[in-house]
Automatic annotation (TrEMBL):
PANTHER family found in the cross-reference section: REVERSE TRANSCRIPTASE DOMAIN-CONTAINING PROTEIN
Protein source organism: Spodoptera frugiperda
Origin superkingdom: Eukaryota
Listed GO biological process terms: DNA biosynthetic process
SUPFAM superfamilies: DNA/RNA polymerases
A Pfam match: RVT_1
Record domain Reverse transcriptase: where: 177-425
InterPro entries, alphabetized: DNA/RNA_pol_sf, RT_dom
Species lineage: Eukaryota, Metazoa, Ecdysozoa, Arthropoda, Hexapoda
The name this protein goes by in its record: Uncharacterized protein LOC126910934
Length: 651
């Protein structure tokens, strides 16, 4: 066909003004191009079907089709660095930069500004180490991923899994001996560091984050310790309630749900909410060993783990790796390795007392992301109180050896768009440490930057708390995906395309939906119209034509919930069995339908912000469900019945 196309083209070129020959060529060219595209699509479809039993290869093929292929980390670094220097020099440059960056921002000072007894809540509990067994080690090994790179010992986790039965008793003895003697093997203290690009210029080494790759044996030892430590902290409620990071049963979703509900309650009472979003510089890398060990004691973690962690953090080193080249060995002077099992739980204990210094504001933390709120009717009354808490956070950070990033700390004033109160931008300051050393004399510190919207844990929050910015942000992401789905629809079977929808599109829509799903119906309709455009690609042409009069039928055909029902589903299952919301049954001296059905009281509210509060939404949603679902105590059965019911009420 291509030869015939070329022949017709040459015939037309001999007589360029002959319209008949031109028409013959263009028709055959289009026919040829369609045949080529059809052959390409058949080839791509067959190659995807061949990969259906290998998820990794399947995703690699799909990413190549939609243009999501990324160059390898090593090639990205090598291609952007100066070609006149060797790879070993590049590695050493990274190693020096990672160390110098931490040393530059560290604040060495023996002076303390707050008495720890004023804000540390000491526990009367004490953790006791339980020696691990070969069975415990085997369970830990089973949970380990085999896709991770090996550490300096070059022992892969897949190799350990093969001989785990023989190795487990030896590793159990090693872990128990290590903890009992309070020593960590020196051979396991060396890490390989891989530079991961954050943002900005690829040529600037300061725009890379060091991620540590530890040996497989080190990971197993750390996991054994972390499992017992995490269980102790949660069972005894040691970790502050404001912390939602790295804890079982807590996540960004639980934080955002509580955060959203508190603000909606304030706005229902016609109050102004001032929120401060703090940012820390290299929080994990600047932890001081002595401060961390002291914080662990306050959490009830004593010997032998105290001594074990002290030795674990002493004498560590790393080598930066690019390609097959390693840098010179560099000593670690502070911090916990990013990528280690102990890092997150060490940080939780280190910052556990932070919220204790706050006297006037409520707080929310996810690892090192801290947000504080204060509401009131008069901004002039609440600003001095907020400033006191900001000063307390700065002083706590100074005493505990971590550095606030004043440039990235933001202020957001949240208020109802219908409020007629005229307010000026509050002037709140995160003073530098030197300013407090000078007793605030001749202070030149800049006020916290006031913004109209802020991105917090991946969610865009605007000053009127309408969620319009976040919905627009989601829509923009979905439109990009839609174009890629349209391209894939010619090459990928519908079953695989549906799996891609559930993994890529549903994950974007579902994240924080129980929070932003309380917004106006017009915003939700934007998302549902985009959902329908995706669903058109997940059905055959015949099915699509049959639903032409109402495309909302596609939700039921594809067994995918629209956004408003997905929000109902998430809200119901996330609040199922939780005792925080005191739901009262409708009672009446006379027999009524509500009493007979065992429905809950729905409180009256003042405005649409009150309509979004959990005290209103939870009983309202539960009352809309049949009695057998509402009264179901088993969460698994509740989820199953709820999903069936929601699909049943679809058009």
């Amino acid at each position: 066909m291509i030869e015939e196309k070329d022949r017709l083209f040459n015939v037309w070129c001999n007589e360029p003004k002959n319209m008949l020959k031109r028409l013959n060529y263009t028709r055959y060219r289009n026919r040829c191009q369609k045949a080529i595209n059809k052959s390409k699509n058949i080839y791509d479809t067959n190659s995807i079907i061949d990969c259906k039993n290998n998820i990794k290869k399947l995703w690699e093929k799909i990413n190549s089709l939609i243009g999501n292929t990324k160059p390898s980390l090593d090639s990205l670094i090598i291609s952007n660095m100066d070609s006149s220097i060797s790879i070993s020099e590049v590695c050493n440059k990274f190693a020096i930069t990672f160390t110098e960056e931490i040393e530059k921002i560290k604040h060495q000072c023996n002076e303390t500004w707050i008495n720890r007894k004023e804000y540390v809540a000491l526990t009367d509990r004490s953790m006791r180490w339980q020696p691990v067994t070969a069975s415990d080690i085997n369970n830990v090994i089973k949970t380990m991923s085999t896709n991770k790179s090996p550490g300096t010992d070059l022992v892969r986790m897949s190799d350990i899994k093969i001989i785990s039965k023989k190795l487990c008793p030896i590793l159990a003895k090693l872990v128990n001996l290590s903890v009992a003697t309070g020593t960590f093997p020196n051979k396991l203290k060396e890490a390989i560091v891989r530079p991961i690009h954050k943002k900005g210029n690829f040529k600037d080494v300061s725009n890379y984050r060091p991620i540590a790759i530890l040996s497989s044996v080190d990971k197993i030892m750390e996991k054994c310790v972390v499992n017992q430590l995490g269980k102790y902290l949660q069972q005894n409620n040691i970790v502050n309630k404001c912390q939602h990071g790295f804890l079982k049963g807590k996540s960004t979703s639980t934080l955002l749900s509580e955060f959203t509900d508190e603000i909606n309650n304030y706005l229902e009472d016609k109050k102004i909410v001032i929120s401060i979003f703090f940012d820390y510089k290299k929080a994990f890398d600047t932890l001081q060993k002595d401060t961390l060990i002291n914080a662990m004691k306050e959490c009830g973690v004593g010997q032998p783990l105290n001594q074990w962690f002290s030795d674990y953090l002493t004498g560590r080193s790393y080598r930066v790796k690019v390609g097959d080249t390693l840098s010179d060995r560099v000593a670690v002077r502070s911090g916990v390795p990013q990528g280690s099992g102990c890092g997150p739980i060490c940080y939780l204990m280190h910052v556990n007392s932070l919220c204790g210094v706050l006297r006037h504001c409520s707080s929310y933390m996810y690892a090192d992301d801290l947000c504080v709120l204060r509401a009131g009717t008069d901004i002039n009354d609440i600003c001095p109180l907020i400033q006191q808490d900001i000063d307390a956070v700065v002083k706590w950070s100074h005493d505990n050896g971590i550095i606030l990033n004043a440039d990235k700390t933001k202020l957001l004033v949240i208020r109802s768009p219908y409020s007629h109160l005229s307010i000026s931008t509050p002037k709140l300051i995160t003073h530098e440490y030197s300013c407090f050393h000078n007793h605030l004399i001749n202070c030149n510190c800049k006020p916290v930057e006031a913004v109209n919207s802020v991105t917090y844990l991946g969610v865009k929050i605007d000053e009127s708390f309408s969620w319009s910015c976040h919905v627009d942000y989601i829509c923009s992401k979905l439109r990009i995906l839609l174009s890629k789905f349209y391209h894939l629809s010619y090459k990928v079977p519908i079953k695989i395309l549906r799996c891609l929808y559930l993994s890529l599109v549903e994950s974007i829509i579902s994240y924080a939906l129980d929070s932003y799903g309380l917004t106006f119906k017009t915003y939700i309709n934007k998302l549902e119209s985009l959902q329908i455009r995706f669903l058109k690609l997940l059905v055959t042409k015949k099915t699509k034509i049959s639903c032409k009069d109402d495309y909302r039928k596609l939700f039921k055909i594809c067994k995918i919930l629209p956004v408003h029902l997905k929000h109902t589903y998430l809200l119901a299952i996330n609040q199922h069995g939780r005792k925080e919301h005191d739901l009262s049954i409708v009672t009446n001296n006379h027999s009524t339908r509500s009493v007979a059905a065992g429905k809950f009281n729905v409180p009256r509210v003042n405005n649409y912000f009150g309509d979004r509060t959990l005290k209103k939404r939870i009983p309202y949603v539960l009352n809309s469900l049949p009695a057998d679902i509402r009264q179901e105590n088993n969460k698994r059965i509740f989820k199953s019945k709820l999903k069936k019911y929601l699909f049943k009420i679809l058009i």
